[in-house]
Structure formats: structure tokens, C-alpha cells
Amino acid sequence: MDNETARKLLQVGQAFSLPGPFFSYEEIMNGNVNRTYKVNYVSDDGTGMAVIKPYLVQKINSYAFRNPDILMSNIEKVTEHIRTKHPDKVCMHFHHTVQNGVRRSYLEEGDSFWRVYDYIPAVTFNKCDNVRIIRSAGRAFGEFQMALSDFDATQLFETIPDFHNTRKRYETLISDAKADPCGRLAEVRPELDYLLSVQDDACRLTDLYNEGKLKLRVTHNDTKINNVLFDAETQEPIVVIDLDTVMPGLIGHDFGDAIRFAANFTEEDSEDAGRTGVDLNIFWAFADGFLSQTAKTLTETETDTLALSCFAITCELATRFLDDYLVGDKYFKVKTERHNLIRTRCQIALARDMQEKLGAMQAIVRSCTDKYRKD
Ligand code: GN1
Ligand code: MG
After folding, report:
1. Per-residue pLDDT tens for 337-346?
2. 302 within a domain of the structure (yes/no)
3. Is the dihedral of CA 306, 225, 328, 37 positive or negative?
4. Is the pTM of this model over 0.90?
5. Which CATH number belongs to the domain containing residue 191 in this structure?
6. In terms of residue numbers, what domain contains 50?
7. Does 344 sit in the ligand 1 pocket, CB within 6 Å?
8. Quick one: which atom of ligand 1 is closest to the CA of 268?
9. Could you tell me if the CB of 54 is within 6 A of ligand 1?
């Protein structure tokens, strides 16, 4: 295991005083922004018996997250709030290191930074057509939302400013398309034209918020279902992870992003545009789980825009993938040169299908909301 990554992980583990000999690691491929490794140590179980103790070590993408201090401060406050409110539940546990005499939960090295947390044995799902699991994922994100409903949003920093400000995302795309730094614009004209043609609908949530018609809550903002850890045996949710973007936000973005990812017939970077689209069974199951927790707290405008939010967040992500393609793949990890373009096309195919199914999606949201407002 004599390679640069192993040496780096060992060095990070030492800085965080992880006990016992380090013996192996594997990269966890979930996640398009940070790099995540499961590292294995041999440790003493307290009675003198050797046990294998895994940790998660993450290299944070400092192009996306410019300020580790505010990022980790948010996460510590949020996890502390959830731990206090639900002491019986599993919560994320971050390790600390001392750097320049200061105790903190990240290690800074040049322009990159690292953090370490306990590995929680679990399974995750990228694609899943089991409606029971999808309903549980919806419930888990709904519970997460409610766990933070009494959290003082003014304590949180914006880890990525204007993260779900769809208007700003469009402005960035338009200006980068004009500059066309990599000469890729000609190739993406159809995608750009489609996104511009739906701009007002895609930005409706942002506009409603700016007009004071949608409530600011504390939201997760990155609700892919692979951010819910499940118990491998019972298939019940254990904990919601990936708290980097927990910030003040709109509930529709959490609902919409989960649907965008989970209810798509294909993976988010599928080239099979013919198959890409919303699976209404999955949509229904997720909506049912999510609304079982949140329906009673939703305003009328939130309920009315929940289905539209799926379209909005899908278009927003398409603008982000397309923009990243135009500027030369700086933000998202890419496996091939055209990966961001493939992702853009997939999100556009999904958005087109959502336009057709919007009425059905709205009817499902309405019926689940009514159901959970009754009891
Ligand atoms: C990124 O890295 P990951 O998979 O948790 C991105 C999300 C996108 C998602 C698309 C901080 O999430 O906003 O929806 O990729 N996270 C950040 O797969 O930009
Ligand atoms: Mg994430």
C-alpha cells in the first residue's frame, strides 16, 4: 500500500490522533464534489482484543467550499442541536485536531482541508425501486427538516453563497456562455436554448422567495437519497448525512432535489435520454414519507410549489452542469471529458418529462398533504 493517497491518509489520521495501526483504505465513490475515503485501523476494543475500526476521511473540495471554518461551524452547531433533541438517535461524530495551537474539526494544508468522522456501518441507495425504502427516505428528510425547525437560522453561515438562487445560477451560465473560455458553446446551443426557454418557470421559487412569499427555513440542500444511511438488515433509516450545505433555504429545494435524484428512471448521468423521466410511483412514495412529517407545517404557497420545485431544481442543476462544462469542469468531479454535458442532457430530459407530469405530481402532493393534515 505504498502510494501517495495511503501516505496522505496516514498523515491525516496521525494529525487527528486516530489510534492503532492503519492498514487499508478504499475510496467511496458517492459524491461529486468532495473526496471520501473509508480508512481502516486495528484498534483495541477496551478489553485487550483487537478490532477493526473504520473512519471516514474526507478531502473537502476547496473550490466549492472556500471557508472551512464556517463550514465546520455550521455542521457542529447542527449536529449538536439534533443530538440534544434526539439523544437516542445516531448522529455524525467529527474528530478534532490541534493546529497552530487551536483545536478544530478540520486540518488545513495549503489550499486543501481534511476532516475525519466515525464510520457508521450502513447501506445507501442510488437507484432504488423499493417504495418502502423510498418512503422511509422521504420520512428521514422530513424528520431532518422538523428536527431543525426550531434551530435559529441566524446562527448559520452560507457555506456556498446563493447555492439555490436559481436566478444567479442562470446569470452565471449566461455570462460564462458569452465568454465561452473553452470554445464549447457551439456544441451546447440546444441545451442552452432549452434552459433559457424555461428560465422563468425554473426561477419561480427564487422569485417567490424574493417577493417574500416563501418561508426561509433551515434546510439540507443536498437531498440525494444516498445521503440517508440505512440499516442493512432492517432497511430503516439511521441518519441523514452530508451536512455541508445545511443553510437557510426553501423546503421545496429539499423535496425537489430528492425527487430529481430518486424518482428518475435513470441515474443522473445516464445517456439514455429516452428512458429518463419521473417515476410517479417513486414520486408518490417519497412525497408520502416527506409529507407525513412536514404537511402540517407547510404554508399554502409551499404546498402549491412543491411539485414545481422538482422542475426548478432539475433545471438549476442542468445550468450548473452546463456552466461547469463551459468553464472546463472546475467544480464537479468528471470521469470523462463530456461527463458534465452528459449530466446536463440527462437533467434536461428529466425536466422535459416533469413539465408533462406536473399536473399529476401536484395532485399527488395535494392528496398526501390532505391525508397528513387530517390526523
Ligand atoms: C453535488 O457531491 P454531492 O454528490 O453530495 C452537489 C449537489 C448536486 C449534486 C449532483 C455542494 O453533491 O448540489 O446536486 O452534486 N453538491 C454541492 O449530483 O455542490
Ligand atoms: Mg453533497
Report:
1. 999 999 999 9
2. yes
3. positive
4. yes
5. 3.90.1200.10
6. 3-118
7. no
8. 18
9. no
